[in-house]
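Retro notes - structure team

What went well: the batch runner handled both jobs without manual restarts.
What didn't: labels got mixed up in the shared folder, which is why I'm recording both outputs here explicitly, each with its sequence directly above its tokens.

Job 1
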Amino acid sequence: MIRSVSRALLVALPVAALLAAGCGSPTAPSTTTTTTTTTSTATSTLTTVPINGSLTTGGSSPDTAPYVFHAMPGLVTLTLVSLDPSTLYPPLGMALGTWDGVSCTRVLQTTAATPGTVFTATASVEGNFCVKMWDPTGFAPGYTLNYVLSLTYYAKPS
């Protein structure tokens, strides 16, 4: 599941345990032995992909066909980069959610997305997630609005 975090996200990173043992006496030189322990986790690669799409008045990327991606646990960032034509900046619906193979369940959403809107979340488990865009207010009839999103997440290397 994706959990919402405000624009700043503090991520606790695992730190390898450092064990040190000393031996010797106060009058003799001491010897120190150091052991470093690390834990291996699934390898993942930070991936950034552009998502290009378009909306018409009252339209949406269908719940049955949103942008779907497979992410490893870690940071997920979705940014509305631009709208074209740039003279029309209606607020758009933008969501980040979970994908069950049939539909996109919105977890983090807004109906007031404009260029520069950023969602930052954490995928707590490996899974399928989705991005959904829609027109919540009904901009100019017969109008097509193109958008560009940037999605960054941890993926399995190919």
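Job 2
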Amino acid sequence: MHNRHVLHVMASEWKKTRKTPVQLVMMLLVPVLSVLFLSWGMDYILGISSHYKAAVFFADDKVELAEEVLADEYPYFSFRNGDKEDAKDLIYEGKIDTALIVGEEEIRLIYDSSLLTSSAALKDSSDIAADLSMLLEGKEYYDGMQLFYPQEELIDLSTPMDKLQKHIDQLAGVVGMIIFLMMASNAMTISARSITGEKERQTFDTLVLCPAPLRKILLGKMLMMMAEIFLSGVMGVLAAIAGMAIWSRKNFATICEQAGQDGLWILVLLLLLLAVTMAVTAIFTFIGSAFSQTKKASLFSSAGMVVVSVAAMLPTFLTTDLVKYIPMANWTPSILDICRHDIHFVPLLVALLISAALLCISMILSTGLWERTSE
């Protein structure tokens, strides 16, 4: 009988969600768009460090000579006729990152420090300026000076896995935080509608008269909240996977090669999302139960959002293995374990138990608040 009451409450809450299709669509669409945009933005920023566009402008007929001698050594530079104004226009339009203006007595480097200019672009600009200084003295002089310089060879000892780990370190924490904040935002909205709203709409007295105990009613609301939050988290994770497949194909191929050997990574992601779902539900259920007005609950919900974001970014500040046992903080280390195909379930289960304990404590406290209101 009690289980029937819980299911009835869940069905009632789902009907309320279906009556607001725009809210349901936004709940699922916002995490997807946010994660896709963030994945693109982070990939673009990280790509700037290795790829850029630059140009060298000449006021005379030295373009062909410079292109013939330096084009192979500096593949990201183009050589053209023009002046400082031409260079500024191209930089402001975003077509190039840096420009060298070759004058009669000086070589001027132009860039916009307010933009994300690659440090490699600035270094290469300095190097090509030195080469141009010798080349403009004459081709024979340039060839002669090159004999005094030792040959250079760049050898990258990092493996694809090393590069992937660096990429995940830079990206996973931010993407995870965005997914969790979207889940928390949905939890805040659902809590305001389903829990605080009962008091604000003055329908709480009707709940008191129901044959089902208040704790069963609250449990049904929490379970439905968890289902909706979990679904939004799944959509966010799918968007993150799609974003990597689109904009970081090499890294995605490496992950597929390592983690794609079995389907355990799916279970890991589901456990991570379940732990986050329970923790977020616990936080916002308690906040929603403590207030009778949505405005007041929203103020404290902001504090809950801060807790979620700080927990997600803990691995950035803590290098201890303790973060693997903390819900939300264990996202980045768990993703790295998936990439290395070195999955450990004990920390995940401990984090899951911690989230379950938080959910039980929130349930007890929230039930007490509801019973106090009914009195």
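One thing worth noting from job 2: The mean pLDDT is 83.
We'll revisit the folder naming next retro.
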